[in-house]
Design goal:
374 residues; alpha+beta; six-stranded mixed beta sheet; globular; disordered N terminus
């Protein structure tokens, strides 16, 4: 009975159902994936028929794997990111509930960004009234991810109680885009993956099944991962029925209420999860990457922040001889600058600090000068 209820939750609430096939003509361009697009990835060659390159014994390594059905109508992405979450837990001295929330958000961001252009990013932001005080997770097409929560140390709460009521914002961006793509939805459940699944179904018109979960034992993340199953244009009724049958088997095999943590704990890899979903549908591998935690903070960003302040405020700091200190919310790195260095860096800065393009040009110019000095 539990397996049946869980399957119904995955299929109906998260938007994946045979009844949604008629909506495919209204799908957004974000769901219009093709095999050719993934075949260009530098991370994996899909020309080989060997599965050895996808092996990940006991899920020791973080991994994102994606594949598509032989007819091109179903795309599946699965991942495990236990190591990344353990690193983040250490960075921020996090307890179980905040780690669970951030782990789910990181998984969802990675799954959503898979197959995008390398520099394209997906940012998930939770603004809510719960004691977690919100969270942010950002992932790129390269598999680079970072994130943080408002309150890293919380006691014995459920994830729903920690998040509370509020909104989920999804921002997709690329350095070459004039404006980012923004979407927002209300938090209805508080377990994140269902809320994000509802957003994808309602706001982006994507028919999909999304699952993300973690297993935390004390101060250690023992598993963290999930999967995203997407229905692409042209899906036949028989194909959708087969996917639902395969999903039922996965739910039964996992046997828990935090799918797919038990499978991951048992050593089932992202490749094997994808293979199970696409059983009988001629699975074709698309992409495999190793996700990494990567923060974009730097002293240059601190200088940019200072340049955005009123000039008289910065001059006042320098006259008082005060140091400026800033801590990165993502990785915890602390940057300090004294008056002399502030004055020097402000004089050397060029361009408009409010424009990302000018900031990137200044960084490139600085890097070029450093190379010439060598």
């Amino acid at each position: 009975m539990m397996a049946h209820l869980l399957l119904a939750s995955l299929v109906h609430v998260r938007g994946f159902s045979r009844n949604t096939a008629h909506r495919m003509s209204r799908f957004s361009v974000h769901a219009a994936f093709t095999t050719q697009r993934y075949m260009t990835s530098e991370d994996v060659s899909t020309e080989t028929t060997s599965t050895n390159i996808y092996e990940n014994k006991n899920n020791l390594d973080d991994q994102v794997f994606s594949a598509i059905s032989g007819d091109g109508s179903i795309k599946v992405t699965a991942c495990t990111v236990r190591n990344i979450i353990n690193d983040v837990m250490i960075m921020h001295t996090m307890t179980a509930v905040p780690s669970d929330a951030l782990g789910r958000a990181v998984v969802c961001a990675l799954l959503m960004s898979n197959g995008m252009q390398l520099e394209q990013t997906v940012q998930l932001t939770v603004n809510s009234d719960g004691p977690l005080r919100g969270l942010v997770a950002i992932a790129s097409g390269k598999g680079e991810v970072r994130g943080y929560v408002g309150s890293p140390m919380l006691g014995d709460l459920t994830i729903e109680e920690a998040i509370g009521q509020g909104s989920l914002q999804v921002v997709k961006n690329h350095p070459d885009w004039p404006n980012p793509y923004n979407g927002i939805t209300a938090i209805r459940h508080g377990d994140l993956d269902r809320d994000i699944g509802i957003y994808l179904a309602e706001s982006e018109q994507r028919s999909c099944a999304l699952a993300a979960a973690t297993s935390i034992n004390g101060i250690l993340c023992t598993s963290c991962g999930g999967y995203l199953i997407e229905q692409l244009p042209g899906a036949e009724t028989e194909t959708l029925r087969k996917v639902e049958e395969n999903l039922a088997k996965i739910v039964e095999l996992d046997g828990g209420n935090k799918i797919p943590t038990n499978l991951l704990l048992g050593g089932t890899t992202p490749y094997q999860i994808t293979e199970m979903v696409l059983e009988g549908l001629d699975m074709q591998p698309l992409q495999q990457i190793k996700p990494v935690f990567k923060c974009s903070c730097s002293e240059d960003r601190l200088v940019r922040a200072l340049r955005l302040l009123p000039k008289e405020d910065v001059e006042d700091l320098v006259k008082k001889g005060e140091d400026v200190e800033a801590r990165c919310e993502f990785c915890g790195t602390v940057y300090r600058m004294g008056p002399d260095k502030i004055r020097k860096r402000m004089n050397e800065a060029t361009g408009d600090p409010a424009k990302d393009a000018d900031f990137q040009d200044m960084i490139k110019q600085k890097e070029s000068t450093s190379e010439d000095d060598k």
